[in-house]
Design a protein that fits this description.
18 helices, single chain, alpha+beta, about 15% strand, about 400 residues
Amino acid sequence: MAWRQGRHRLATAPDDPSPAPGTAQNSAVAEVVDRMVALRAWPERSAEAAIRIRRASAGCPSNSAGDGLPAPAAPPASGVLAAAQEDSSIIRSYALRGGSYFFTPVRGANLLSVRAATKIWASPRFQKQASFSIDDWQPLREAVHGACSLGPRTREEISTQVLAEPTLSHLQLGLSGAGADSLYKPLHWWGDICFGPTRDGQATFRWLADDPAWPGLPPAHEAGVQAMGDYMHSYGPVTRANLHYWFTEGLGVRRAQLEEWMTALGDELVPVTVAGSEAFVLAADLDDIRSTQQVETLLFLPSFDPWLLGPGTADTRIIAASRRAVASRGANTIVHNGFVVGTWKTVAHEVRISWFAEAGALPQSLLDEQVQVLGRTLNRELTAVLTTG
């Protein structure tokens, strides 16, 4: 857990917690997103908070202990994800579980290649959902390309231009955003488009395929092997259940395909035993994992944070089975040494903390520290109100 927290920048202070605005800050945000592989984009305030906590020294041991770490820095302002999107340091696309995620172009290309290779978009059920046929895809791609040729466009703007084509006029349902964006999602998976900047509260899409920062989709097998290595490097040691959660449930990959990718990794993959269960790590990470020293941490994480969504809320190494619904419903969680021990929320000048009874003694000094960090983030004095249950 300590090693994984380090990978997520949740256990040690970053080298440059407050980079200057502009390209340097965008690169720093992209570096953090890259470490998480994929960051759920909605609700965006939670995604911003996930970045903010990893760009500040929150979660580090207290400076009062004389450990020499820098004092907690002022968190970056909101909007850093949108800024990083503008220069293509990161992109936002439909990916896991049909939701939108932030990732760096290379990580995203691997995940989207894997998703596209499942060909779910060709299934009768998928076609029925938005009233289209396979023959519609290529003319639709060309029409959307034309609609986005002058910059990001809203669904309404894309729909107006595409439906002007007589041969595509029957696609009104899917282009309106109904049918769970069934006509837009495959265009994301193929690397044609991604989300653009939000305009007046409305989502936009931009043409991605011609962006110099976009590497294009690699071959599916190559992408899958690389995506599995990426996942293990951020969330290892991983169990087969973790792999099925991320790839099978998240991207529609067959379980047999996962075994093929594991075989392809060969000596790069090492089986290990963690608390009596079989798991796997990258050989390149094994020595670092063994040598990592545990440092006590307490963190206030936002809803749907990658710390939980990466391994999945069914992973009892992260959260007790009896508490899973708390995280799945989107509560802000309190994580002690990697394990969920409570929830938190702010109401006016209070931070209301629900400490799980089974979590044992509360580390008061670390909790007080996190309340102060949260107060600085929100720019107001906060008082902790504690309940146990």
